[in-house]
Structure formats: C-alpha cells, structure tokens
Amino acid sequence: MSVAGQGAGPRDEIGFGRAGPRPASDGQHARPRPLAPPPAGPAAAISSTGLSKRFRGGQLAVDGVSLAVPAGSVYGFLGPNGSGKTTTIRILLGLIHPTSGEHELLGTPMPAGATSVLPRVGSLVEGPAFHPQLSGRANLARCDAADRTADPGTAADRISAALDRVGLLAAARKHYRAYSLGMKQRLAIAAGLLQPRDLMILDEPTNGLDPQGTREVRSLIREIAAGGTTVFVSSHLLAEVEQISTHVGVMRTGQLVFQGTLAELRDRGAARILVRTAEPEQAVKVLAGRGLADVRSGPHEASAQLGEQRPEEINAALVHAGVPVAGLETPRPSLEDLFVELTGEGFDVHG
Amino acid sequence: MSTAERQAAARPARRPALAGGAGPWLRFLRSELRLIFGRWRNLALLAVLAGLPVLIGVALKLSGGGDGGGPAFFDQVAGNGVFLAFASLTVLLTLVLPLTMAVVSGDSMAGEASHGTLRYLLAVPAGRTRLLAVKYAAVVIFGLAACATVAAAALIVGAILFPVGPVTLLSGNTVSLGAGLVRLLLVVLYVAAAMAALGAIGLAISTFTEHPIGAIAAILVLAVASEVSDAVPQFSVIHPYLPSHWWLSFGAILRSPAGGPELTHGLLSFAAYVIIFAAIAWARFTSADVTS
User: Fold this and answer.
1) Are A152 and B23 in contact (CB < 8 Å)?
2) Secondary element (H or E) of residue B107
C-alpha cells in the first residue's frame, strides 16, 4: 500500500482500500511492488509474491499468485471450484510448501515465522474437521490445548464465549458426529474465535449452510471485521461475498486474474450504448459509421461499445440520420457478468 | 469503519506472549492422553490385556499347573502366583502387546490426517515437532499402561488362585516378596521400553499415510515378520538387529545379580530403534505437504 509508510493517523484513511494494486486490465497478473523493508505503519495483512505450487503429479495448482490484502479489509477470494483457492490458503497457513514464491502474514515471513504469527490468525480450511467421538466443547478444548499461547485459566470461558458467538452453546455437549453440517461449519468458525485475532482466513465458510445460516455467517464476518480484524474469505459465488467485501481477488485455473476493490472490478465493465428502434439496420449503420466497436443488432434494438464517445452525440447523429429512436440506454455489465467473464462460463473444473 | 476502529486494525490483538516452560507441553500432552484413553477401541484393548492373564491363570489352576513343556515361567506359577505376571507378559508379547502398540502408534498421525484435524492442529499452530513429540510421548505412556495392566491383572489373579510368597529367582536363590515385586516393576519397564521402540517405528509409518488402518496393518506385519525371522535359525546373522529379538530378554532381571549383557544389548537395541525412527518421523513430517 502506498499509504503504509506515512505513520499512524487519520490521513492513513484517505484512499484506503484504493491503494491496492491496479486491476490486471492488460491480462497480466497484478503484481505488488517488490517487497520493501517492513513499513512503520499498518502493513498488508497478507502479501505474497509469485506463489506457485506444482504437485507431484505435475499439476500446477497455483500459478504465480501475488496477493495484497490490506490490513482492515474484508477480502473476497473468488474463483470456481478447482481454481486453486484452497491450495493457496493451505500455502498461506504453511500447510503446503510452495514450489516457488514467498509470502508474509501480518508482516511476518512465512513459514519461518509460523510460531509467532499463526496464533494471531484464525482459520477455516476446506470445511470443518473434528474428532467425531468428542463433544463440540471437548473439540475446542483440544484446539486450545494445542495453542502454546493460550491461557489455560481462561480456556473454559473463552470456549463458552466462542460457542455462544456462533450459537452453539446449547449443543456444546453433543457429540460432534451428531452435529448437522451447518453446526459443524459453525464449530470450525468458533475454533477461529477462541482468541482475539488480527486476521481470519475463512475457506468457504458458508458451504453447506441454509440461507438463514448463510446470513448469520455473513453478519458474523461483518462483526469480526468491525472489531478491526482483517477477513480473508474465499467463495465460489460472488453473491456470497459481494455484500461484505471491500476487496476481491479472482482466481482462474491457478492464476489471480483480478485483484482490487469492488469499485475497480465494476469499472472494468465497458459501457455499451443500446438503441431501441424499429429500424435496427439503419441504427447499426450509424453506430458503425461513428467507428464504435462490437456493433450488434436485435429485432428492435442495436448496440455497440460506447468507448470514449458521448451518448447525446450518438443520439443526435441517429436522429440526424432519420433513425426513429424509441429509447437510448447505456447499460454496464453487472458484477456477476464481469465475474463470469473473468472465471469463464459455468463453474467447470479446469485441469 | 471509524478512525478508532482503523487504529484498532493497525494494532496487534493483545495476546499473552509465548508461555515458556513445560506448561503448554503438559497441557497438550494431557489433551492427547484424554483422546487416546477416551477411545473405546483403546479401552477394549486394555480390557483384553487385563482379561488374558485371567484366562491363563484359570487354565493353569484347572490343569494343576504347568507340565514342564509350556512357555517360560508356566511351571513356577502353581508354586508362586507372582510368576503369573511374568508368564502373561511372555505370552502377550508374541502378539497382543505388539498389536496394541500397532493400533495406538499407527493411528497417531494417520488418524489425525484422516479426520482432517491435522490441518487445524497445524494452523493453531501446534508446531510440527511439538505435535510429533507429544504424539510419541502419549504412545509411550499408553504402552507403559498396557504392560502395567497385564502385570497388575496377573498379580491380582495370581494372588487369588495361587499361593504368594518369597520369589525364587532363575539363578536359584530366593528374594523376599517385596524384592520380587520390584523386579516385576523393572520387567514391566523393560517390556514398556521394547514397546516404545515398536511405537517409534509405528509413529514413523503413521506419518507416511492418511489411512490409519494401513499404518496399523503395516506395523503389525513388520512385528510378526520380525518374530518369524527371529525363529528361523538360518537368519541368525540378522537376529540381534531384529526389533523383536530382545523383547523376551527380561529374564535377565530375574537372575541374581540382575542384568547382564543380554539386557544391555536389549536396551541399546530399543534406543537405536527409537532414535532412528523418531528421526525418520521428524524428517518426513516436518517437510510433508499436509493436503488431508
């Protein structure tokens, strides 16, 4: 972030969230500036340079991913299933060693600094996983016992508080194997809430939840973020994270094809001009005559990319040429359209 | 977000510093022991280990004692119930004790991997070396508990069914019952050390797979293969290096004076197996990609 080195203070807020790398409009990966010495102010919560992972089978699961997740952001990590999101998250947490590239969490190089930084990071990786024969509470107690930094004196209270936060306190003594999928998912989130965290990495936290549960998780994430925690949340659905994200990164076949704010994603959509008319052929001639790109026509309409031209001038030209203009619009593609355009049609697994 | 919240974002959450000392290790070990001793399967194994000395004792009582042709110590049981403990350990060392170790050590890492709990333990972070050390410590403790269970059950049954008194050692001289029980304790520790060596092999195998059943089977096959090879005279060159070769050398503890080269060789062999296989487990686990 360009504001990172200016010290703490209100000025830091100016342009916050716009300071990330520019969108990869030229088809190149967005690459953050080279890793500089740790800045004095708030550093990026997650930064990586050229992370790649080739599995032993030869499959390139992650291909040169350079993430820049600003501190305090809610970063939606999007991409179809199989696009490399989970492998990236496993690399971030030090579960998988990258074939090349490096990364930092909260300004600490990983995996060398795992012992000191991971206690400040809560995570949910590829669905919940607990011991089926233990109760929800006993499972959380085990997670807490594994944490060297956890205070055993406050364990019971912290576990109760975490269970309460995800609405599982009443089911705390039930065996994990008796939990519904939604309850399992919540227990995994509760494990991430056993301690105050500076960063939460949540891999598909709403997977398997009903609409009500999805809403609850979304408001939980909002609440966590409001407390100052950076949230990195992956999903294969834009709609899941659109309402809560300040930033998004989009993965496709192992590559980060877009990274930036939601507004920057919206700006990528090229505006079109759409003419409603009974004489589309005439309209097409006028549009093409003005040098507009991608001219198309339908039964009662004609459209083209607007480019740098002004709609009112095009309208004047249409009227001048005698085209009966019934309506004129300048639609922009929806975020969903842009997302699908970035990730490819459908949610097929690539490779 | 407000300015205050922004500043909160910039400030690390308040967390206690890494607690030094043994406290966090012991807490994690207690959690691991609760997990192992809380599993019905493992408790059932302990029940079998306690039940078999009862069967052996009852059989010896009904048949009027050993006939001179059975396994070691069988002939002495009718004269002194304490020997039921030595006889039971000898019999159970052939299969049931190694099976118990195979189950517990084979499940140690592979079980966590198959549940997916391994990735969460590492993300906590439990620390790979620390996790491995705690897992192995728990396996060793369970092995000790298994050996102690056999000895305790045999002692109780032996005292009920047979006379108990001063213990006549294998070298012919007699020591008091108290001194005899101390020797039994040393035997239990020796057998537990043998099982700890097998547990180290099991831990190493367990780091190579996500399937606990596969690991358990592999360890058991290895133990049985070692015992079979040990019984084939043509393999005598490799006998001293087999993991199971020194298991039954605890008879040396029952001589006066106790000990001797057999016992020393046995303990050295166990130590070598622990060091080699703990190193293999460490090298494998600290470099492995956790994809489970």
Assistant:
1) yes
2) helix B96-115
Q: How many whole angstroms separate alpha carbon B246 and alpha carbon B275?
A: 17
A189-201 pLDDT, tens digit per residue, is: 999 999 999 999 9
Convert the pLDDT of each residue in A297-313 to its tens digit. 888 888 888 877 888 88
Q: Give the pLDDT score at A314.
A: 86
* Partner-chain contact B117 A130, CB within 8 Å: yes
Question: Alpha helices of chain A — where are they, by DSSP H?
Answer: 85-92, 114-117, 136-146, 155-165, 181-192, 211-226, 238-242, 262-267, 280-289, 311-320, 335-343
Q: Render pLDDT for B119-131 as a digit per residue (tens, 0 to 9).
A: 999 999 999 999 9
Contact A159, A144 (CB under 8 A): yes
User: Are A250 and A339 within 8 A, CB to CB?
Assistant: yes
Confidence grade of residue B18 (pLDDT, cut at 50, 70, 90) = low
Whether residue A16 lies within 8 A of chain B, CB to CB, comes out as yes
Confidence of residue A347 (pLDDT cuts 50, 70, 90): very low
- Picking from A29, A32, A8, A10, the residue whose alpha carbon sits closest to that of residue A19 is A32
Determine whether the interchain pair B12/A120 forms a contact, defined as Cβ–Cβ distance below 8 Å: yes
Segment B63-121, tens digit of pLDDT: 876 666 677 788 888 889 999 999 999 999 999 999 999 999 999 999 999 999 999 99
Between A27-41, A44-58, A60-74, A125-139, the lowest mean confidence (pLDDT) is in A27-41
Shortest distance, CA A307 to any CA of chain B (angstroms): 36
β-bridge mates for residue A60, sequence order: A54
Residue ranges with strand state E in chain A: 46-54, 60-65, 68-69, 74-78, 100-105, 108-110, 121-124, 199-203, 230-235, 247-252, 255-261, 272-277, 296-298, 301-305, 325-329
Q: Give B115→chain A minimum CA distance, Å.
A: 6
| Closest A-chain CA to B126 | A146
- Mark yes or no for CB contact B35/A142 under 8 Å: yes
Chain B within 8 Å of A193 (Cβ-Cβ)?
A: no
> Which chain A residues are Cβ-neighbours of B11 within 8 angstroms?
228
pTM of the model: 0.82
Computed on alpha carbons and rounded to an integer, the radius of gyration of chain A in Å comes to: 24
pLDDT score of A287: 86
Beta carbon pairs, A and B, within 8 Å: 138
Contacts of A108 (CB under 8 A, 6+ apart): A116, A117
Q: Is A229 on the interface with B (CB under 8 A)?
A: yes
Q: Which of B17, B31, B291 shows the shortest C-beta gap to A96?
A: B291
Q: Which two tokens stand for residue A36?
A: 């500089």
Q: Least CA distance to A106: which residue of chain B? A: B12
* Burial environment of residue B146 by CB neighbours within 10 A (0 to 12, 13 to 18, 19 or more): buried
Q: Find chain A residues with C-beta within 8 A of B38's C-beta.
A: 133-134
Q: Is B8 in Cβ contact with A227 (below 8 Å)?
A: yes
Name the minimum distance, in Å, from the CA of A109 to any CA of chain B: 15
CA A325 to chain B, closest CA, distance in angstroms equals 46
Q: CA A218 to CA A121: how far, in whole Å?
A: 19
In this prediction, residue B17 has a pLDDT band, given cuts at 50, 70 and 90, of low
Name the residue among A266, A278, A279 with its Cα closest to residue A331: A266
